[in-house]
Every structure is written in structure tokens, then in C-alpha cells.
Amino acid sequence: MGSLVPLQLLHAEPSREYQIKAAFLFNFAQFVEWPESGFVDATAPFTICVLGNDPFGSFLDVLVRDEQVRGRTVNIRRLKEIGAGRDCQILFVDRVEARRWRSVADQLRGRSILTVVDDNDIERDGGIIRFAMDSGKIRLVVNVDEARTSKLQISSKLLRSAQIVGGGKG
Predict the structure, then answer these.
(1) What is the rounded distance in angstroms from the CA atom of residue 95 to the CA atom of residue 104?
(2) Residue 134 DSSP SS3
(3) CA–CA distance, 19 with 1 (Å, rounded to integer)
(4) For residue 141, which of 83, 161, 163, 165 sits 20 to 30 Å off, Cα-Cα?
(5) Are 62 and 8 contacting, i.e. CB atoms less than 8 angstroms apart?
(6) Which domains does the chain have, with CATH numbers?
(7) Rounded average pLDDT over 27-43
(8) pTM for the predicted model, two decimal places
(9) What pLDDT does residue 85 have?
């Protein structure tokens, strides 16, 4: 007698850390406001992009399947270079690409893109939100100045659970 295995289980599951980070990425969309100019047009999808190596596998795709953000369908795109990510609303930058953060940031300047950097180096500048591991837990570091520069409004509900950096502190 054969057994049925869900298709998603046939693909390697990402680590628990990256399953949680994938959920964070999707949930950020609920706690951040983008200006209309952050979208190509009124019918454009809400796009989450992954730059560099993809630690999520198909997990992120399955997580957002049939979901919407403020009436927009959600798309996932994988990018090998930042130039292809100009229409992203959320851009996840993997650890390898985080090492080249300055060149990535320069290409994004002036765009309303929530940059989320996977980087354990607490002291390094990196995007608007940075995932940092602390005693085995994922910690969010939010640069409120960068969010303002990108014309993004981050909800106080998200900021309450984060370490805030930038001039907006205090």
C-alpha cells in the first residue's frame, strides 16, 4: 500500500530559524505602510524579493500562497542581482550579500523598499530591519532613520519588540 506525502514535504524544509524568518517577512507587510509611489500601479502585486542565496526554499512560497496584502496578491521573487529588485516592497538580503551591503544600499537609495538584512553583526549598518541572533533567538534591529528616508511608516506594534537604532530613538 502506497503512502501519500504532501508535495511540500518532498522539498527540503528550511531550518526552523528560516521558517520563523519567513513568517516575519510576510508579517512585516502587516506592520509597515508603503506610499502609493512604492508600487508600479494600483493593480501591481505586493512583492517580497530574496537577494542572493535563498534559505527559505519553497517554504516562503507556500506561506504566502493565496494571501493578500491590502488587497494586492503576494508574489515571491528570487534575485541574483539588485538591479532586478526595483519593484520589490520587501527585499530580504542573505548573509553573503549582506557583506556587500554598501553597494546594495546605494542602488536602492530613494526607493520605498523595506530592506531586511540577515546579518548577525549587530554593529554593522544594514538595511531598515536586521535579523540578529541573540542566545538562539531572532532579534529585530530597526533603523527608523532609514525607514523614514525610504518613506515607510513602521507601526509602533512592530517597534515595541525591536531594538531601535537611528535618530528616532527616544
Answers:
(1) 13
(2) strand
(3) 32
(4) 83
(5) yes
(6) 7-165 (3.40.50)
(7) 94
(8) 0.87
(9) 74
